[in-house]
Amino acid sequence: MIDVQNIESLQIEWFGGEPLMYLKQIIKPICEFAQKECEKKGVKYSTTATSNGYFIFPKNIPLIQRLGMTRFHITLDGPKQNHDKVKYQKGCDSAFDHVLNNINQLLSNTKTVNILLRINYTDENLNYEIVDQINHHITMANRGRITITPKKVWQEKVRKDRYKDIGELLNLFEQSGYNTIRLDVITNFVPCYANRKYYNAINFNGDVIKCTACNDLYENKTHGIIQKDGSISWNMDFIRKYEVKSFENRRCLQCKQLPICMGVCPRDNEYVNVCKFDGMDINLEDSIVNYIESIYK
Predict the structure, then answer these.
(1) pLDDT tens-digit map of 67-119
(2) What CATH fold (topology level) applies to the domain 1-180?
(3) Of 26, 199, 210, 263, whose CA is between 20 and 30 Å from 165?
(4) Domain boundaries, the chain
C-alpha cells in the first residue's frame, strides 16, 4: 500500500475477540513495523482498537502511547448490574468498574487518546442510572474526550417511540460533560467504511474480507487472499457488492435524506425496499433537528 499504491495515510484498526490480550505479542511488532515504513515514506500513521477495555492496564499505557494509538471503541452492556452479568470476569468484582477505571487512567495519562463509548441497550436495561454510574469513575477533566453512542441490541425489536428516552439519556450525558452521537450522519458521501477501496479486514488466519459486522468473518470460504507481493486477490463475486452504488434503487433515490445516508449497507443491496433507518429506534426528522442543535450549542 505504501510502496505501490502511494497512499497518503495508514490507519490500523485492531478488532477481536479482544486484541489487547496480545498487545505485546502481535500489536506491538506490527505497529512498530508500520510506524517505521510510514516514517520513511512520509505517510501519516495512526492506530485504533475496538476493545472491551479490560486489558487497558495502567502498566500498558506507555506502550499504547508509543504505538500511536489515538482511539478506543469500548462497549458497555447497559448499567453496572447488566454489564457485569454479560461481561463476567473471573477474579474481578465488577468488570464495569474495572473498565471505567482503566478508561479514566488512560485519559489522565495521555493527551491524544479519545474514547468512543458504545452503550448497548434493550428495553430491560435502558436506565438513566448509567449516567451517574459512569460519572462516578470518570473525572470531569476527562469527560470531554469521551463520545457516547447508544446502540440497540440487534435482537431487540424496533420501537420508534423509544427515541425520546434515548434523547433524554444523551441530554444527561451532555450535561455531565461528554460528547454524544445523536445520529450517524454521512458527511463524506461514503455510505459505509467497507465501501472504501483500500479498507480491508484481515482475519487472524490471513484471510481478507471487507466487513467485520457480518458473517463473512466466520465463514469457511475465503473471499480474499494476500499474495506474496502483498497484493490482495479477491473473489470478484464477493467484492462486486462493495463497488456498486448502494443508493441506486427507487426508495433511496426518492428519499430527501439520501445526502446524509448515501444508501443501504452493501450487504443489503440485493434486497429491495430496505432502509438502514428501519432498524433503528429513531424518529429521523427529530433526530436531524437534535443533531443540528447539538452542533450549534
Answers:
(1) 999 999 999 999 999 999 998 888 899 999 999 999 999 999 999 999 999 99
(2) TIM Barrel (3.20.20)
(3) 263
(4) 1-180, 193-281
